[in-house]
Amino acid sequence: MSPQKCPIILLDGGLGTLLTSPPHLQTFNHSTPLWSSHLLLSSPSTLLSAQSSFATSGADVLLTATYQVSFEGFANTAPGYAAKDAERYMRSAVGIARQALSEGRGKGMGKLALSLGAYGATMVPSSEYSGVYDSSHSSITQLRDWHFKRLEVFLPLKEEEEERRECWRNVDLLAFETVPRIDEVFAVREAVFMSMGRAEERPFWISCVFPGEENRLPDGSSLREVVRAMLGRREGASRPMGVGLNCTKVGKVDGLVREFEDALKDLGEDGRGVSLVIYPDGTRVGERYNTVTQRWEVDEEARKGGQEKEWDEEVFGIVIRARERGVWESIYVGGCCRVGPEEIGKLRKRVDKVIN
C-alpha cells in the first residue's frame, strides 16, 4: 500500500504497570496470579478508570484486561473460583473495556481487542519471556486445546443467554500476545480455526516477544521461521490479519520490523495484505522485569552510554519509516509495560500531524 494510504491505528499502553502506579497503586504478587485481571474480582471501578485514561489520551483500540486470565488462575485465586464463575468474570472484562471506550472517546468511538496472552503468561512465575512450559502444555495440540478452551469463553452459544452474545458483539479484534514459541503460533491459528462456525469471525493478530540480544524467539526460532508460521498456508489454521511484536525493548524494534518485511517478501502472495502490529515496552536501557521477584530491576552499568530518545519519538520514527516503505496494509502501534496514558497521548499528537 502507498505510504499516504496506509492507516496508522493507535493502541493503548501497559495496563498492568499503569495499575501499579499512582493514583491506582495496586499490588500484584504470587497471591494474585491473574495480575491486572485480578481487578475484575477486587475493583472493577479501578480497572475502568485506568482503561478510560488510555481512551482519553487518544487510543483508537483498547485491549481488555484478560491478558493473564485462565481457569487455572481463577482456581488458584482465594477462595478459589469454579469454572462457571471464572467465565463470567472473564466476560465482564469486555463490558468494562467497552464502557471505558465510551467514557474516554465517546459512545460508538474506537474499537476493542480481546487480549489473549500466551500460555506462559498464566504460569507462576510467568514464562512468556522464556518459553519454558510444563510438560502438559508443550505440543501444538496441547496448546491449541488450551487456547481454544479460553477463547470459547467469549463465544456465543445457541443455548446460552444474551449476555454471551452481547459480549461477542462488543469484541472487534482478537489479540494473541507475547507468544514466545513457534509451536504456540501454530496452536493459536488452529484454535481460531476451531472457533469458525461457532460465531461471527473476528480479525486477529499474533504478536511475539523478542527479549534476548538476537532477533529470535525465546525458543530459538528465527524471525523468518516465525513469519512463515504466522502466515504460511496450513490446513486447519486461520490466517491472522496482523503480525508483529509486543513487550520488546524499543531499541530492537526498527531492525525487527525490517526483518519482518524481508520475511513477508519471501512469502510472496501469502505475505501480502498484512498489517503490522507493534507495541514495544517503555523500559529504558538497563531495566528489566524479574518474573520471580515480580519487581523491576536496574543495571546501572548498562545504563551508562548516553541520552536516549523519548519513547514516543522513537516509536513514531519506526512507524513512519515502515509506512514509507509501503509493505504494510495498515500499522497498529501502541505500548506495553511502562507505557502510560501520557506516552500514548504524545504519540497521538505525532500521529495526528501525519494522518490529518
TrEMBL record:
Known cofactor(s): Zn(2+)
Chain ranges of the Hcy-binding domain: 1-351
Listed GO biological process terms: methylation
Residues annotated to bind Zn(2+): 247, 336-337
Keywords attached to this entry: Metal-binding, Methyltransferase, Transferase, Zinc
Highest taxon listed in the record's lineage: Eukaryota
Matches recorded under Gene3D superfamilies: Homocysteine-binding-like domain
Pfam hit, one: S-methyl_trans
UniProt entry tagged with the keyword Lipid biosynthesis: no
Keyword Methyltransferase: yes
GO MF annotation terms: metal ion binding; methyltransferase activity
PANTHER family recorded: HOMOCYSTEINE S-METHYLTRANSFERASE 1-RELATED, SLR1189 PROTEIN
The protein's name in its UniProt record: Homocysteine S-methyltransferase
